[in-house]
Amino acid sequence: MHEWALAEAILTSAKEIAEKENLKEVTEVNIRVGELQQVEPPILRFALSQMKTDPFTKAKFRILKAKSTLKCRVCGTTWAFNLKKLDKNTAEAIHFVPEVAHSYVKCPKCGSPDFEIVSGRGVWLENIKGVK
Ligand SMILES: [Zn+2]
């Protein structure tokens, strides 16, 4: 259900931007979703299509993935986390419970499993396009 709340928040902030930029009609809304965020893009897309009103009636909603970056708490190394490098079951487990990542992922430099997620969580509005 949280995709619906998310869709509402996205539409609210997109509308504020559209008003600030004096857009009469919005043609494109680009949304970035962190790779480790528990969001199902098809559900989010559906929610957006059901909830959109003026000035989004003709807008295309694009949901893009954001890469995640991890940082080791022991040695400070940061590295890009790639879900595709993991086997499918592990990737699925991490997708649904990001905390699980700690049991599978280790620092490439010192091998410590103690790291923080620097980016890869959260949902944000990348930009919107429209006509004035
Ligand atoms: Zn380390």
What do these coordinates show?
The structure is a single chain. With 132 residues, this protein is of the alpha+beta class. It has 4 helices and 6 strands, in the order αβαβββααββ. Strands 2-1-6 form a 3-stranded mixed sheet, with helices on one face. A hairpin with a 5-residue loop joins strand 3 and strand 4. Helix 1 packs across helix 2. The two termini are 34 Å apart. The mean pLDDT is 86. The chain binds zinc ion. Zinc ion binds next to loops. Zinc ion (ZN) is lined by residues 72, 74-75, 77, 107, 109-110, 112.
Number of helices: 4
Q: Hetero groups bound?
A: zinc ion
Low-confidence stretches: none
Number of strands: 6
What is the overall shape? elongated
Strand order of the largest sheet: 2-1-6
Structural class: alpha+beta
Q: What proportion of the residues is helical, as a percent range? A: 25-40%
Distance between the termini: 34 Å
Q: Which percent band covers the strand fraction? A: 25-35%
Q: How can the largest sheet be summarized? A: 3 strands, mixed
What is the CA-atom radius of gyration, in angstroms? 18 Å
User: Residue-averaged pLDDT, rounded?
Assistant: 86
Order of helices and strands: HEHEEEHHEE
